[in-house]
Design goal:
This protein is mainly alpha-helical. It is built from 10 helices and 2 strands. It has one domain. The protein starts with a helix and ends with a helix.
């Protein structure tokens, strides 16, 4: 792995450990633009690396008793089904080339532009909403609403290879009034489930893996995640959320500029 790629992998792991999100949505751009992985394969790499790192984090948080397994079940089960169906049956039907009038747009470009759009929308949500860390009680909603949210997260996870933490964390904190520490732990568990089951839909791509690259990236993510767990005690939750939001926003803008104006 390149030095810059290694540094970025570690930093992405830090965001995953501190905020329970941001890891997967930043991993695909790093794999594509820094480590020069094909965008389609990069989404599968992301599912593997983020899934394994989140699984390790989930085991640690399980020992602390900070995971809300009711939310994991209500979010996770519909997400699992949606992710698998999307990777197995929806993406294979996406054409390799889109003909739009005089323009011919490759599938990889469409994938990255869609990815950038999701990043920018997520960034606005993280920047504009504050975390209420002193809720006395969590807000209760029907299981049906949670299931619908889980399906939405699963669809995004399946299409862009992101674990969905950038959607799960705002929902858990702003919608359900869940404390930050509990939201991070619950998010990591849902991300692990989504990513690993999404990977099952791409199992035929394993023979294309550069395992040296994937395992190094995954290892650095895990190291960064544990560093993130440690650093959370020194930062305010709203500061973390806004910093991550701005980072995701600027990466999203970079992707759009790269795909439209900076093509090689």
């Amino acid at each position: 792995m390149e030095v810059i790629g290694s540094l970025l992998a570690t930093l992405i792991g830090v965001t995953l450990g501190m905020m329970g999100s941001g890891g997967s949505i930043l991993t695909v751009p790093v794999l594509v633009y820094v480590l020069h992985v094909d965008p389609n394969l990069a989404t599968t790499y992301s599912l593997f690396a983020i899934g394994m790192a989140s699984l390790v984090g989930s085991i640690v948080n399980f020992s602390k008793g900070t995971i809300d397994f009711r939310k994991v079940l209500d979010f996770g089960f519909p997400s699992i089904i949606t992710v698998f169906l999307t990777r197995q049956f929806l993406l294979p039907f996406v054409p390799d080339v889109f003909n739009i009038g005089p323009w011919i747009i490759h599938q990889n470009t469409v994938l990255m532009i869609f990815f950038a759009g999701i990043m920018i929308l997520s960034a606005f949500s993280m920047i504009n909403r504050k975390i209420g860390q002193n809720w006395k009680t969590e807000r209760k909603y029907s299981r049906g609403i949670t299931i619908v949210q889980g399906i939405g997260v699963g669809l995004i996870t399946g299409v862009v290879g992101a674990g969905g933490g950038f959607l799960i964390i705002p929902a858990l904190i702003n919608f359900y009034k869940m404390p930050l520490s509990k939201a991070v732990s619950t998010s990591l568990t849902i991300i692990a489930i989504n990513s690993l089951f999404g990977l099952a839909g791409d199992i035929e791509k394993f023979n294309l893996f550069d395992w040296n690259l994937v395992l190094q990236y995954t290892g650095l993510l895990i190291i960064g995640m544990f560093l993130g767990f440690y650093l959370t005690r020194f930062f305010n939750g709203n500061q973390l959320k806004r910093i991550l939001g701005y980072l995701i926003f600027f990466v999203g803008i970079f992707i759009i500029l790269k795909e439209f104006f900076l093509k090689d």
